[in-house]
Amino acid sequence: MSPDDRRDALPTSNAHPYLRAATAGLRHHTRTLTAQTAVGESARPADRPHLDSLHAHLTALHLLLDQIAERTRPERPASGRHLATAHARLWQAADAVHAAFHLLPTSAPGGSDCHPERLPEGPPVLTICQRHLAASHAVRRKTTAADLAIPAS
């Protein structure tokens, strides 16, 4: 087996343990929500802390996919282009979660508005808006508006 064949082989069971743990956590959360609905519990809408956590996951995954696409593109341009498309779609998902976060009701007057030019009143608005602003700067450096305007196929 050549070094190239080993690199393309499927990962071993202990490869990428943190990514595997994050995926397992998301699956567990999804099963919990599904089980609550199946048992007949009334479905509760998402709250701000829930969307903040989801946004954190999406932006972390966005950064990871960006790094993977950058490393893949020189050796395998076709795969790199597909990863770049996934990168743009992931940003669209994070942007939509951020928008949904600000549409949820809040106890503070005017607390649902996003004002990146000034510091929000506190968590979770502070964390999600700062994270979103940092991610948006990274997106603008590597992605065109036309790339982001294309609907997912």
From TrEMBL:
<protein>
    <submittedName>
        <fullName>DUF6238 family protein</fullName>
    </submittedName>
</protein>
<dbReference type="InterPro" id="IPR046205">
    <property type="entry name" value="DUF6238"/>
</dbReference>
<dbReference type="Pfam" id="PF19751">
    <property type="entry name" value="DUF6238"/>
</dbReference>
